[in-house]
Design brief:
The complex is a heterodimer of chains A (116) and B (114).
Chain A: E1 3-5, E2 10-14, E3 19-21, E4 24-26, E5 32-38, E6 44-50, E7 56-58, E8 64-68, E9 73-78, E10 87-94, E11 105-106, E12 110-115
Chain B: E1 5-7, E2 10-13, E3 19-24, E4 31-37, E5 44-50, E6 53-56, E7 65-68, E8 75-79, E9 88-95, E10 104-105, E11 109-113
Classes of the chains: A mainly beta (116), B mainly beta (114).
């Protein structure tokens, strides 16, 4: 069974500061890893994903994440926070070793707050 | 629009009522997923369709929950005899291929059971 742990349900940073949102996963097979963002009253929007190849992946809005197999981590970073980055962020994992296509297992989410 | 749509966006039901939530996936998408997102939590898998076939319903919390996708496009999630613990946002997602690694999410239906 897969699981995803997001350390810190709330993270607060100042505008212009580094954003670091942590994600650790457990999976019995090489996983696919995702970060989604959710704005209030909206669905989930894909920020970036790791499937194979380069372990540092770049996404939209200046976000990037690095897959570290030895640490079973996929932390999300952004060098400089913007007010518009305030939202809920979800890390998710999927693998192909099940009947449900590429169903996603999500972490509990991290609410990012950006202070002016 | 070209995205996944869901209706209604908000639903208030009295305990014991039946509700039906609709999902219109992106045209041509083979895979369709339903997730349940309780307040302050991440989404949790409910069920999966490949075209009209429901291949996995292991996440449905009870036999009061039923989902269908009879023609392989629109899907309906039905909850019978709603309970307060059913209050959540129900998210639908679709993807183009069975093993596609990107799901496109709808805006969700927020269900409140009084």
């Amino acid at each position: 069974a897969q699981s995803v742990t997001q350390l810190g349900s709330h993270v607060s940073v100042s505008e212009g500061a580094l954003v670091l949102l942590r994600c650790n996963y457990s999976s019995s097979v090489p996983p696919y890893l995702f970060w989604y963002v959710q704005y209030p009253n909206q669905g989930l929007q894909l920020l970036l994903k790791y499937t194979t190849g380069a372990t540092l992946v770049k996404g939209i809005n200046g976000f990037e994440a690095e897959f570290k197999k030895s640490e079973t981590s996929f932390h999300l970073t952004k060098p400089s926070a913007h007010m518009s980055d305030a939202a809920e962020y979800f890390c998710a994992v999927s693998d192909l070793n099940n009947n449900a296509g590429n169903m996603l297992t999500f972490g509990g989410g991290t609410r990012l707050m950006v202070k002016p | 629009g070209a995205g996944v749509s869901q209706s209604p966006r908000y639903k208030v039901a009295k305990r014991g009522q039946d509700v039906a939530l609709r999902c219109d996936p992106i045209s041509g998408h083979v895979s369709l997923f339903w997730y349940q997102q309780a307040l302050g939590q991440g989404p949790e898998f409910l069920t999966y369709f490949q075209n009209e076939a429901q291949l996995d319903k292991s996440g449905l919390p009870s036999d009061r929950f039923f989902a269908e996708r009879p023609e392989g496009s629109v899907s309906t999630l039905k909850i019978q005899r709603t309970q307060q613990e059913d209050s959540a946002v129900y998210l639908c997602a679709s993807s183009f291929e069975v093993w596609s690694n990107e799901q496109f999410f709808g805006p969700g239906t927020r269900l409140t059971v009084l």
